[in-house]
Design brief:
The chain is mainly β. Helices cover 6% and strands 24% of the residues. This is Disease resistance R13L4/SHOC-2-like LRR domain-containing protein.
Amino acid sequence: MLPSLVHLRLHWCELKGLPLTLPSINFTSLSVLDLSENSFNSLIPPWLFNLTGLTELYLTWDFFSGSIPAEFANLKNLQVLDLSDNLNLEGQIPGLLGNLSKLQLLDLSANNFHGDIYGLFSGFSSNPNSKLESLDLSSNSLTGELPESLGLLKHLQHLDLSSNSFWGSIPSSIGSLSALRELDLSYNTMNGTIPESLGQLSGLVDMNLMANSWKGILKETHFMNLRKLQHVRLTTEPTRPLAFSASHGWFPPFKLKSIQLENCMIGPSFPVWLQVQNELTSVVLKNVSISDTIPGKWFSQLSAQLTYLVLSQDQIRGELPRHLNYPYLNLIDLSYNNFEGPFPSWSTNATDVILDENSFSGPIPENIGALMPRLQKLYVSRNHLSGRIPPSMCDIEGLNIISLRNNKLSGELPNCWHRLMLWGIDISNNSLTGNIPNSFGFLPSLSVLLLSNNNLDGEIPSSLRNCTGLTSMDLGGNKLSGSLPLWVQYMSSLFMLRLGSNLLSGSIPDQVCRLQNLHILDLSQNKISGPIPKCISNLRALVHGKGSEVFQRLIREVTRGRDPEYSNVVANVNSIELSGNNLTGEIPYEMTNLLALRILDLSHNHLSGAIPKSLTSVASLTRLNLSYNNLSGSIPFSPRFNDSSIYEGNPLLCGAPLPTKCPLPRPRK
C-alpha cells in the first residue's frame, strides 16, 4: 500500500513468515529490497516477480527452498541478486540469470545447486554486453568442467567457484578476464592443468587454487604480467606432479603479501623469486621439494608484520637466526626438515611453535616463558634437545600442549604446574629421572599424560586423582613402584591406561572395573599378583566397543598423529595386556562377555585351569596370547587361533594346534 516506497530493508528482523500471495501489489516503485537473515522457511514468493523496478534484491540466510523460479526473467533491471546461504535452494542454475543484462553481482553461494554451469554461461553467451562484476557460486554441489565461455565476462572482477566438484583444467579463455582481481577455485576436484594465459591477468590480486589435484608445469609465462598479485594459494595432491619451471635467477613482477604452496615442486634450491619477496606477512610452504640450505638473511628480510611462518615436510638445512623479533607472529611450523643448531630464542607472541623432526640440539632456553609468553602449543618432538625442562615453562599461563617426545632431555621434571590450562603433555622417550611431580594433579584440564620410556621412579602421585578429566595416561617403561592406585576409579573418562614395564606390585583392584570408557588397558611386565578380577566384564567400552573416536582425536592432537606408537592407536583399541606378571587363578569366564575385545595377552603368568570354551569365539578378537602359564585341559577349537605359539609353555594343555593329543574319554561300563 506504499506506491512511493523505493527502499525497504528488513535485514535481520527475526521475521518468521512471508506470505506467498498478496491481495494487491502497489509498491511497484521498489528499487531495493533486503529481506536477508530472517527465517521464512518457504519457497520464494511469486509476488516478488511483479516488482519489475527492482535493482537490488537481497534474500540471503532466509531458508528459502526449491529451485530458482523462471519468473526471475521478469526482473530485467536487477543489478544485484543475492540468494546466498539459504542452504536448500536446489536444482540446476538456469540460463535466464545470464540473460539479465544489467546484473553486476550474482551470489548463489552456500546452497544445494547441482549439475554443471553450462546453462548459466549459455545465458551469458547470448548477452555479449554483460556487466557482471562479481559471480559467487561457492559451496554448492556443482560439477563438470569450466566452460570456455567464461572468458566472455569482460567486466568480471570477483570469481568464486570454491567448494564444489568442478573438474578438468582451467579454460585458456580465462586470460580474457582483464578486469579480474580475485579468483577462487579452491576445494574442488580440478585435475587438469593451469593455462599460461593466466599470466595475462594484469589486475589479479588474489589467486586461490588450493585443495585440488593439479598437474603439469608452471612457467614464468604463467606469472608474466601478474604485477598486482599479492596473495597466492596453490595446493595439490602429493601424488600429482605440479612443478615450477622458472630459471634460478628469475625476478617476478609481483610483491606478495601471502603465499601458500603445498605439494608443488619449487626446489631443490631455495628459489631467488622467493628470496626477493620481502613484504610477506604469511608464508606456508609444505612439501615443496626444497633440499637446500636456507639463506640466513631471508628470515630477517620478512615483514615485521609476519603472522604465519610454515616451512614443513621438506629437507631444508641450516641454522636459524639466534634472535628475531616477530611481535605479530601467530604460528611457527618448521617441522620435518633438517634444521640444526640451538632451539630458536625468538621473541614472539606466537601461540603455536612446531619444530618436530629436525636436528635442533642443546637446551630449551631457560627464559622460554619470557620469550614466548602467549605460547599455547609447543611441539619439538624427535630432535636432539638435552638438559632439563626449564621451570619458566610453568609461567606460560595459556599453555595447552607440550610435546617433547624423543629427545635427550634429562633431570627431574619441574614441580611448578599449578592452575595452568595445560591439557596435553607428551615427554615420552627421554631420560627424565625422579618422581612424577605432584603439581600435575593441580592441572584441572589435564586430559592426556604421556611420560613413557623414561627413568621416572617412585609411586604414581595420588594428586592425579584430582584430574578427573584424564582420558589417556601412559606411564609405561619407567621404574614406578607401589601398587595400582585405588583412586583410578574416579577417572570416569579414562580411555587408555598404560602402566606396562614398571615395578608395580600388588593385585589388580576391583576399582579398575569401574572405568566405563576404558578401551586400552596395559599392565604388562610388572610384578602384579593375584587373580584377574571377575568384575572385568563391567568394562562397558570393551563390551560395546563404541565411543573411542573423541579420545583418539585428543591423543592425535598431542602427538600430531605422527609417532608410530600412537599414530595407529586404532590398532590397540579394545585391548587388555597383562603379560609378564605373577597372576594366578583361572581365566575368568566373565571375560567372554567383552564382545568388543580385539587383543588379549595373558602370557607369562601363573594362570591355571581350563581355557573358557567361548573365549576363542569372541568375534572381535584378532590377537590372543595365553602362552607360558599353567593352563590345563583341551584347547577350544577355533580356526582363527590355530597357531601353537598362542598356547605353548602350558604343559598340561592338549589338542590342536599343540602336538600333545588329549586322552580319549573312558568308556562307560
